[in-house]
Amino acid sequence: MSVTTSEIPTLIRTLRHRLGLSQEKFGQKLGVVFQTVNNWENGRTKPTRMALMLIQRHLEQMGDEGKDLLEKYFKQ
């Protein structure tokens, strides 16, 4: 994974908005609470490796809609 700590807030917020989800609903998809998503988006904490893998999987499942984020943040 090549996403950097400074890029995480933008990645999380952009993905969440594309999915049309609140921080609470996005957290439920990833198995975390609202406050965790809020902390990620505000740069206070960063997702665990497992959470980043779930985020990457969501982007892969989005097809063309998530392709640009996948390439930008998870380029191999």
TrEMBL record:
<dbReference type="GO" id="GO:0003677">
    <property type="term" value="F:DNA binding"/>
</dbReference>
<dbReference type="InterPro" id="IPR001387">
    <property type="entry name" value="Cro/C1-type_HTH"/>
</dbReference>
<protein>
    <submittedName>
        <fullName>Helix-turn-helix family protein</fullName>
    </submittedName>
</protein>
<dbReference type="Pfam" id="PF01381">
    <property type="entry name" value="HTH_3"/>
</dbReference>
<feature type="domain" description="HTH cro/C1-type">
    <location>
        <begin position="12"/>
        <end position="48"/>
    </location>
</feature>
<dbReference type="InterPro" id="IPR010982">
    <property type="entry name" value="Lambda_DNA-bd_dom_sf"/>
</dbReference>
